[in-house]
Design a protein that fits this description.
The protein is α+β, with helices and mostly antiparallel strands. Helices cover about 45% and strands about 25% of the residues. Strand 4 and strand 5 form a beta hairpin.
Length: about 140
């Protein structure tokens, strides 16, 4: 399936993230502000998991979970979706966003943060195992 990030000119400051099972239609610039504008589309093997990760990454911006609406800018939404640690293939990236050097920096920042969080949890797990091993060495008196 495909994860889509889209905006609408008549809904400034809002981004919609949703999933579809089929490849999205060709992207075209429409003068109608009520028409949605696809900013990013990527295919994911596990669409439900990808959508869950996107919701987690943007949890502070969530407005309506049913509609997939977030109060954020397109660059932040695309960075959050593209930084998801699942195999995916980008099908479309808005040329305006692709030309923005902040996009790759935002994606890398999210990936680096996630790596540090994973390392911290791994350290907690290792410490817990060591503690259990140590406690097992000394029988209770």
């Amino acid at each position: 399936g495909y994860l889509i990030v889209e905006t609408r000119a008549d809904q400034a400051g809002l981004v919609r993230i949703y999933s579809v099972d089929h490849q999205p239609a060709q992207v075209s610039e429409s003068p109608d502000p009520a028409m949605p504008r696809i900013r990013y589309a990527a295919s994911f093997g596990s669409l439900d998991v990808a959508l869950m990760h996107a919701q987690t990454a943007l949890h502070g911006c969530l407005i309506d979970v049913e509609a997939g609406l977030y109060r954020t800018d397109p660059l932040t939404a695309v960075a959050a979706v593209d930084a998801i640690d699942l195999g995916h293939q980008v099908q479309y990236l808005d040329p305006e966003l692709a030309a923005n050097p902040r996009l790759s920096a935002a994606i890398e920042q999210r990936r680096t943060r996630r790596r540090w969080i994973n390392r911290a949890w791994n350290a907690v797990g290792i410490l817990a195992i060591l503690l259990l091993l140590l406690l097992g060495q000394f029988p209770a008196v």
